[in-house]
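Issue 218. Parser rejects a valid record. Input:
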Amino acid sequence: MKKTLGIILLMATMLFTFMPSVYAKGPSSIRTGHYGLQEGYVANYHWNKHKLTNGEYVYCMDITRLAPENRTLTYLGELDAGYAYLLANGYSRKSFTGNSDYDYYITQGAIYWYIDRINGLSDSKSGQLSKSFKTTGKDSHNLRPHMKNLLNQALKVRNEGYVTPTGSLSVSTGKLSLSSDKTYFISSPITLSTKTGTLSSIKSLNVKLEGAPSGSKLVDKNGNTKTSFRSGDVFYVKVPKSSLSSLTASMSVVLTGTGVTQRAARYDTGNSKYQRLAKYYEESNSFSSKLNFSLSTTKTTISKIDITTKKELPGATMVVKDSNGKVVDQWVSGTTPHVIEGLPAGKYTLTETIAPDGYVRAETITFEVKDGQATTVTMKDDYTKLKISKKDITTEEELPGAHLVIKNADGKVIDEWVSTEEEHYIEKIKPGVYTLEETIAPDGYIRAETIEFEVKETGDVQTVTMLDDYTKVEISKQDVTTKKELAGAQLRILDEEGNTIKQWISTEEPMYLEKLKVGKYKLVEEVAPEGYVLAREALEFEVLETGDKQTVVMFNTPLTPTPDTAFHVSTMLYIAAALIGCAGIGMVYWNAKKRA
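Output the parser choked on:
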């Protein structure tokens, strides 16, 4: 049986550090030379300018004591980091004005001021320095702002304290993986970190391999050999596969470095009448950090397949964890099985954290890796299955002709179709929240409200049902006065193109129409009921997109009787008889009058 190829990092032990060496420290004693008295540049304060016999400047710590001229002072101990900042950033290591007398005066004043502050004295109280010196006293050369800035920075560094410079190496996963071209093994990223403070710095860094197989080297992310290093660098161990003489190997990555810390020491003559002096010095130190590796070989092949086609399934996020729950590898599946070179012997779990779009995460699998054996693990993925049903709200039968759209949570169209007499079936839709929207309803139906639904992570068939209501129109033919239904009217409905949609003769009941297409129509009366005037103008109405009953009423006016103005013979006879009657009465009246 072919031996397993691979390499695993069984141990990556981080060893921090040896910092034993102090290469330079303040001397045990110092010797002062002659001092010079400085002018009272600020608030008329005068003090001495001290210099050691080696030419180095030092500073007083007791403003009221005598100057220790031409005297030997012994080391009393280390001063805090604030003093060190004042000396490291004052004269003669830095200049504020370009004038050495001003610069020394600024530095000495900042030290006295610092002593007042750390002793709890505010600027409104006098101590080593008077209130006037620290606030409004004469300052014709504008030296006080330099002192105050130096003081404030020193107080910040005092809180920080001394930080000894150190360096270390760290590796994230403790694993070497076979490269894609199968020619070498490469580690997880190794990070070089350093620690420094305001008063400390790194002077040198060196990283090298120890005990590695022949041809092994340190490389950057592009695979280029790396020989110089600095803080924050990320690099890798690269080991040629061909250099391994057995299934085991060991090596170390070793960091060595040096650093410097700026410090301050206090010196005293032993006589309380003389000034104590503050002196700057630098302390050097070394450090180291080491990673040890122990190697062995295995090969594990992991296959992610479709449950139906049995083909490799790309797009699944896979995670392998060891028995302690630590992630040892993770990847996204492709069209070929995933090979892990170098898993240590033991039990593992394979978990699918993200399934490919439209698929359902499989249950976690437990498997075992044994030294000297190839291990194959297969995980199958089921997929989502969705049925969309568009039904008549009354019959609950499938309703063809509806234009439907599915959108995801971002509003992106996932699928669209026109409904048929069968449910719409969709496979492999990504689990999540979606909306089902009806953009066009079948003729005579009302668009349903948009439905929000969730595709759950399951291989079971999930069903979403959308019901469509339809239009309901009542056509009423009424007497304009009594509002009663009129029978006998011949009516016709025309659409906007003039097509006849419906024609009928009215009865004593309104005409009820269902599933009339939404839009504008005309109701035309072609023959009026007997005894009524024909409604000559068409009645325009609109069928709205609603499931509520809509009523359209057309009124008819009754016919009114008309007087007969025609001339008839019978009329003449009536008139003649009346005239004869009137003449007879007149004659009777006339004869009677004559007799009288």
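Fixed in the parser; the record now loads. The longest strand covers residues 249-268.
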